[in-house]
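Reviewers of the previous submission asked for a worked example of the structure-prediction workflow described in the proposal, so we include one complete record here. The input consisted solely of the amino acid sequence. No template or homolog information was supplied to the procedure at any stage.
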Amino acid sequence: MATEQELDEFLRDVERRAFKRTAYTVRDEEAALDIVQDAMIRLVERYADRPAAELAPLFQRILGNATMDWFRRQRVRDGVVQNLSDFEGGSDDGDFDLLERLEALHAGVGVEGADSSVARQQVLAAIEDEVARLPARQREAFLLRYWEELDVAETAQAMGCTEGSVKTHCSRAVHALARALRLRGIVP
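From that input alone, the workflow returned the following structure tokens.
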């Protein structure tokens, strides 16, 4: 059973990343804040008695379900269905590792000039923009694996799919991001 302090620390640690991930998904910061808060409340109300090690996959699953519920309400309310798969492109041959690119950007953060700082911020903004354009399942798998740092099994559990599906979604997301960033002139 997770202690109250462990639960508080978990929620404090996950809050910012969960908000960013949800904001990417719903593209509405106020709605994202509501969704994350609701997910946190559900976790505390229903699963506070679980061990601390189970909190991350449980929370990700709750957050994913809360986000899907939001979309369902929007569809009913607005009568519009968003099709995020329109952003998916064709195949690509080149290899591009987004994590290596981010590490390279952060490696020179010690002392940098204004021009370097602005360039870095522009690259990060471009990456965030392209992550937001990924199809929903690819974005979810990518963010859980590389942002939340869940392993393949935890990601599969949180997404409610197989480990093979997680690997496929992640691979497609990385290739789509690499292609989109290259088109923007961002190369490793």
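Helices lie at 4-26, 29-47, 55-78, 98-107, 114-133, 136-147, 152-159, 163-183. We consider this example representative of the routine output the project will generate in years two and three.
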